[in-house]
Sequence to fold (264 residues):
Amino acid sequence: MTYQEQPEQGEAKPAPSNEPALTALSMYPDQWALFLDIDGTLLDLAETPEAIVVPLSLPFALHALSRKLGGALALVTGRSVAFVDPLFAPFRFPVAGLHGAERRDAAGRLRRALIPPAFQEMKSAIAREAEAWPGALVEDKGAAIAVHYRQAPEREADIAEAMQRYLDEAGSDWALQRGKSVVEICPARAGKGHAIEAFLGEEPFIGRKPLTIGDDVTDETMFAAANRLGGQSVRIGPPNDKTLARASIFSPARLRDILASLAA
Ligand SMILES: O=P(O)(O)OC[C@H]1O[C@H](O[C@H]2O[C@H](CO)[C@@H](O)[C@H](O)[C@H]2O)[C@H](O)[C@@H](O)[C@@H]1O
Ligand SMILES: [Mg+2]
Fold:
């Protein structure tokens, strides 16, 4: 990953169809909790998982915004918690990782996901099989494994078939998670919706309305939870009638601009 040294240039601002959701948060910061996805939401998508770029100002903007919200800001991601922390250094935010299978609360307590020996062996078998798919990338995330085909789109069907086969062997403690040019096997009890409900049961999130912002199918459970709990849900990308999100923001860059202005 790299860090952008220069302040980024905000792109031309599209019509702010979505911004009332964020305006409410800025007007009543003691009433809202903010839950942010990372890839495709806070950060632009990149060709590989390691090639993401973190604008230098972003961790500071998130920290300032978190303070305005009394600490009620959490990252909710498919990445592992261990991967996330260096991205946002020197700050450590509450974070749900592996699509909710692991979670560190605002007090710093980390609930890890177990990695049984059989899962470790399965990850090795997947990595060996992936050697036959040029361009495919295997991402070992500890208690989850992802196979990416962004650079090998012609392998999508092979990879999906293989991951389903491994899932069938792994049993019901595991689940398949599709995403943008990726197929993952994660703990079945994972779910971003459950993660935000868990945060909302704890200080400093308790009693607040959730505003969830994400970009992908894995974010739909947190959109659903936010809608059900009287909050708001925003999807990054062009308006889309297949999502449960009630509003949209055109791009991660536009979201970063909005978050920076809320933080100032
Ligand atoms: O829940 P998120 O924070 O959005 O994480 C979802 C997955 O993001 C990463 O993969 C995606 O982003 C990569 C970098 O931009 C891109 O190359 C890939 O095609 C996308 O699927 C990450 O690598 C996964 O582990 C996350 O589950
Ligand atoms: Mg995402």
